[in-house]
Write a structure and sequence with these properties.
Blueprint (H helix, E strand, L loop, with lengths): L2 H38 L20 H4 L7
């Protein structure tokens, strides 16, 4: 085979192994997510998850005048 054949075979093994690992990882993660859904139900995204819109903080007015100098 030669050196190029060894690198080709190694790359092929690595590519197939990475693909198999990814599929198994997704399968295990999907089973875990299904189990969590059955255990807790659909939480809706966090604490206080009613129908209210999330509060978005764009900035702090008192910090805008600060130039970042701590002296």
């Amino acid at each position: 085979m030669g050196h190029w054949g060894m690198w080709l075979a190694g790359g092929l093994v690595l590519a197939i192994g990475a693909g198999v690992f990814t599929v198994v990882w997704w399968k295990v993660g999907d089973q875990w997510a299904d189990a969590e859904y059955k255990r807790f139900g659909h939480g809706g995204g966090g604490p206080g998850s009613g129908n209210e819109a999330p509060k978005v903080i764009r900035g702090f007015e008192e910090d805008e005048s600060d130039d970042g100098d701590s002296e």
